[in-house]
Amino acid sequence: MNILIVESRPELGGLWKRHLERQGMHVTLAAGQQEAVTFLSDHGADIIVLDLVLADGSALAVSDFASYRHPNARVIFVTDTTFFSDGSIFNHASNACAFVPSGTPPEDLAAMVEHYAAS
After folding, report:
1. What is the rounded CA–CA span in Å between residue 117 and residue 73?
2. Is the dihedral of CA 74, 80, 83, 87 positive or negative?
3. Relative to the CA of 115, which of 4, 16, 48, 92 has its CA 20 to 30 Å away?
4. What distance in Å separates the CA atoms of residue 98 and residue 113, rounded to the nearest whole number?
5. What CATH number is attached to the domain comprising 39?
6. Under a CB-based contact definition with an 8 Å cutoff, are residues 33 and 58 in contact?
7. pLDDT tens column, 25-51
């Protein structure tokens, strides 16, 4: 299972990456839009864990690019803001499969990744 994490905060992205790798998943960590698009230009991902608020670039641009290049890739959006808390992210990103707080425990995030990758 190939997972792409797009997270500007290295400590949080690293925590998720280590936890998913312990579950046997192959994980790549990108810090922003450019790194994510570069990765997705050459590689596929089954699931993308994508912070809605990136320090570098746009999460929706990453989601759109992934939808074009890898139509079967699903996106789990994470955020520590109330933006899109009404669920409207599912209207803006056709590949969105979940929307969770950044503080979600890593084991819960891993369970979601595994569930949506198997779907």
Report:
1. 8
2. positive
3. 92
4. 10
5. 3.40.50.2300
6. yes
7. 999 999 999 999 999 999 999 999 999
